[in-house]
Write a structure and sequence with these properties.
By secondary structure, the protein is α+β, with helices and mostly antiparallel strands. It is 13% helix and 31% strand. It has one domain (2-208): Trefoil (Trefoil (Acidic Fibroblast Growth Factor, subunit A)), CATH 2.80.10. The longest helix has 23 residues, at 2-24. It is globular, with a radius of gyration of 16 Å. Bound molecules: 2-acetamido-2-deoxy-beta-D-glucopyranose (NAG). This is ARABIDOPSIS THALIANA KUNITZ TRYPSIN INHIBITOR 5.
Length: 215
């Protein structure tokens, strides 16, 4: 694990000095807002939808290619809202999700019965065939520290409309980690989330799942 993380850090340090600073600094812990202008709350279900409507729209979902069914990874469903997520802030007594703050993100099923895996987001190991660090599931929730580094994500306002996601965990003071924006990339028939070498990420909005159902 230590070796893997060291490799991650070395590989990305070259590209990501700027994006790292922008994720780590600031510490402006503004609450993240949903599409109604309400604070995004811990343990409440939200769809993560593209801030771009029409082509390129759609929500985040669990997906898999034909040749590697488990664990499922994070895809964008181009036509539907996808699967709602729950946010779990690193500070478990904080009911509100804040910008620049570590959160676990979990697809609401909680457990993928077919794969027998968790639906908590996780940064996968480096995929040398695609040159990507994909976001997958079967992560661990809570227990901030070196052993859970790959399970923490951050949210910040995008340059335009909506929010972008990033990976820049600060759950371990002595750990060297990478910091990168998360963007969507094509992978076969899927559109998947992965770290971006460039300091830019796809813009998303958060829509209360209960409202969406009742509309
Ligand atoms: C955690 O959240 C609670 C509630 O917002 C707050 O009072 C407390 O100061 C936070 N703890 C830390 C370590 O930030």
């Amino acid at each position: 694990m230590k070796i893997i993380l060291a490799t991650i850090a070395l590989h990305f340090f070259i590209f990501s000095t700027n994006s790292c600073l922008s994720w780590a600094a600031g510490a402006a812990d503004q609450p993240v807002l949903d599409t109604d202008g309400d604070k995004v709350l811990a343990n409440v279900q939200y769809y993560i939808l593209s801030a771009i409507r029409g082509a390129g729209g759609g929500g985040l979902d669990l997906g898999s290619p034909e040749d590697k069914l488990c664990p499922k990874f994070v895809v964008q469903d181009p036509f539907e809202n996808g699967t709602p997520v729950l946010f779990h802030p690193v500070n478990t007594s904080d009911p509100v999700v804040h910008e620049f703050t570590d959160v676990n993100i979990e697809f609401a099923p909680g457990l993928d019965a077919y794969c027998r895996s968790s639906t908590v987001w996780k940064l996968d190991d480096y995929d040398s065939s695609s040159g990507k660090w994909w976001i997958t599931t079967d992560g661990d929730k809570g227990n901030p520290g070196p052993q859970t580094l790959t399970n923490w994500f951050k949210i910040r306002k995008s340059g335009g409309f909506g929010y972008t996601l990033g990976f820049c965990p600060t759950v371990c003071e002595s750990c060297v980690t990478l910091c990168n924006y998360i963007n969507k990339f094509p992978d076969g028939k899927n559109t998947r989330l992965a770290l971006n070498k460039k300091p830019e990420g796809s813009p998303w909005v958060f829509v209360k799942a209960s409202e969406k159902h009742s509309k």
